[in-house]
Structure formats: C-alpha cells, structure tokens
Amino acid sequence: MFCRRLWLKPGTGFWTPSQQGAHNLASFHQASLLPQRKLRGLLFPFSELEPHLACSVDRAHFQLFQPSVEDIAKAEKLFSPSPSHKIDYHTSAVRMEHAPSQNQPEVCFIGRSNVGKSSLIRALFSLAPDVEIRVSKTPGHTKKMNFFKVGKAFTMVDMPGYGYRAPKDFVEMVEHYLGSRKNLVRTFLLVDGSVGLQEADMIALEMCEEFSRPYVIVVTKIDKCRQGVLLTNLLQLQDIITQTVGCFPQPFLVSSLHFSGIYLLRCFITHVTGSIQLGDTCQS
Predict the structure, then answer these.
(1) C-alpha of 191 from chain center
(2) Tell me, what DSSP letter sits at residue 35?
(3) What are the residue boundaries of the EngB-type G domain, all occurrences included (predicted)?
(4) What is the pTM of this model?
(5) What gap in Å lies between CA 147 and CA 90, rounded to an integer?
(6) Domain span at 105
(7) Rounded CA gap, 233 and 195, in Å?
(8) How many domains does one find in the chain?
(9) Order of strands across the sheet with 252-253?
(10) N or C: which end of the chain has fewer CB within 10 A?
(11) What is the pLDDT of residues 234-268, one digit of tens each?
(12) What are phi and psi of 232, to 5 degrees?
C-alpha cells in the first residue's frame, strides 16, 4: 500500500522553492529524490518504529492520517511564498486584548519550555526562509504569543512555553486564548519524545480537555533519543490519549533537524484549516 502512495501520478507537479537559504530537505521535491526507504521514514516516521513493536500492539491509531503524496505536494504549495501568497510574521501579543482580530482559521502550538516549538515552526516555514522565527537554546525564550500569517489561508501561533521561565501570567493568557479564540481550529500540544509526557504536559492536556477544543499531540526531538526510549514514551503517551475526548488519536512524530514528519504535519495543518481537500479519505 505504501508504494502506491509513494509515486506521483503523471502530471502532478511539485512547488520548488526558489528562495536561497532554504534547507536542502525543506521541499518535498528534494526529499522525493532520496532512496525509497529514506523517503518513507521522512514522510511517516512511525514506519521506522513499527518493526520493533510487539505483535500485540495495535498500530491503527498511529496510522490514521495517511495522505497521498499528491496531497502532501498540494499542501506544500501553501507553505511556499509567492507574490500573491505572502508568508510572514504578523504581530505579537502579551494579552488577548492585544491579539489581532481576524476571521481566517488559526492553529496554535503550546508546550514546555525548550520542547522545540519555535524550531518546529521554523521547520514548517523552511520554504520561506525570510520569515523571522527566533530560536534560542535558553528555555523560556518565547514570552509572547507570536502570530504568523500564511497568506489568506490560515494563521499559526507560537505560544510561550510553560514550565521553566514561563511568563507569570502564562495560565491566564493561554486559558483566555483557548476559551475565547473563535477562529482557533486546532491546538498542537508538543511533547519531548526523549523524556515523554511530564507533569506540566498533563496540566496542559487537561486544560485542552477542559475547553473542549480539538487538539493534537506532536512528539518532538525524535532524533535525540534511542528507539527503545522513544517507543516506551510513545506507548505511554498513547495510553493517555485513549482516555481523552478532544485529542486526535494519532500522535505526530517530528524531527525539526532532519525534517522527519514535517511534510505530514504540513499536510495535516492545511487539511484541518480547510485550506486543501484531500484526495483520499483520512480522519482528522
């Protein structure tokens, strides 16, 4: 089944970035030139872990969102800037009353300090290297809600990290945002794959549940730990997800450094914001 998805139909075009400074794997077009096994791991990182799972483990929830390569290529166009489709930092806000008023769909990213939120957003926007996204090795660097507009399609919001060096009014800021942002269509809760779900993450998860907003868990830094550690943390995380109401059953695995899972996540974002219609039927 995978091979069927891996080849493009005749006449399907890629959107090749012309901007200098883009990562060599920023474009799916470049990734498609890799050997098939390498490409498979970049598109669907879970495929690298699946052979190491016990036969008794249900794999279905790890493979719910399986778009075709045509859909992935279509989604990539929305992350590629053009004169008629500008991608740029829009504004920042320290309180909800300072947040921009807009109607286009919005997705936000929350997570512990130093979980890799800004790095992930930079990887998602890697086809638009002129977009300024500040990434710091110092935990708690992001202190404001940072809004990035993707043309007229949707907006992505980088929220301050919780935990170490979090803004004093973090809880008030995020609760107000989750509770009142009418155009918010999906929250992405980031969890560090090398350490798994922490107590602070559970509080954030419960907050998402409390406001009955649909959310997704993104497992970051999958390149920073051994497969055994990642699998253990992933299975524990899956046990928690099955007990939730608002969480999408499939966690998304990503490496912002190696671009694993980035193309799939781009496609999911464009799908849930209504920016593209998928050719295949996928859950969301």
Answers:
(1) 11
(2) -
(3) 103-275
(4) 0.88
(5) 5
(6) 2-272
(7) 7
(8) 1
(9) 87-93, 145-150, 154-158, 106-111, 184-192, 215-220, 252-253
(10) N
(11) 999 999 999 999 999 999 999 999 999 999 999 99
(12) -60, -50
